[in-house]
Design a protein that fits this description.
Helix 2 packs across helix 3. This protein is an all-alpha fold. It contains 12 helices and no strands. The protein binds a DNA duplex (13 and 12 nucleotides) through helix 3, helix 6, helix 8 and helix 11.
Length: 231
Amino acid sequence: MHNKKIKEIYNLLYDEYGPQGWWPIKGKYFPEKEDPFEITIGAILAQNTTWKNAQRAIMRLHDADLMNPEKILKLPEEKLAEIIKPSGYYNQKAERIKTISRYYMNWQKQNRIPGRNELLSIKGIGPETADSILLYAYHQPVFVIDIYTKRLFSRTGIANENIKYEKLQNRIQSELLKDHLNDEKVFREYHALIVEHAKRHCRKKPECGGCVLKIKGICMYKSTNKMEGET
DNA sequence: ATCCAGGCGTTAT
DNA sequence: ATAACGCATGGA
């Protein structure tokens, strides 16, 4: 029933911001081909921090010539933690990156890609990280739900703000399916567009001025400029 | 200075 | 089953 809205939001955001090109990272390191390992590690490093800080940690791994599972496994955990420090939570993340590196080597050796439940069984990989890895590292058609996605679909009246991860994901995927927009390229682009839009307008503290969704009448959210002290 | 950022696991209610 | 908390850096 909100089918039209979900498709329309995608089209509006795409027209507004254009293709986002999330992965691979554009830069001096391997710009010619994307590296599933780097994307996997990047998904961990990006947890609950800014992309800029995650990218700093990724660059430091490249600078140390450590962007592969074998070298990471040989490196003492404290060294790894030091290198990825800018991403925050560096002790947790170092431990988890080591674990995932071991799994990654097995996937490579077995010439297969991980399944969602397998990813979820790994400590440090929750639903969003699992889906980010599947979508951005392995091009599987799964829609990533993050805090921005919940916020945007909540404020546009498409979902309750406390909706569960898989429920919102199923809703979006099934409605995009009706419009034949259920391919991984759209999913990648849509998620990235949501993040961009959330950074510019649909922030925690909303900046609704100039929001294309508001202008086009898709979003009715009122950006209440703090009027808490009401009776 | 306070708040937030491309979350997750553990522990308390 | 859900809520609260710890993990930690860097920018606004």
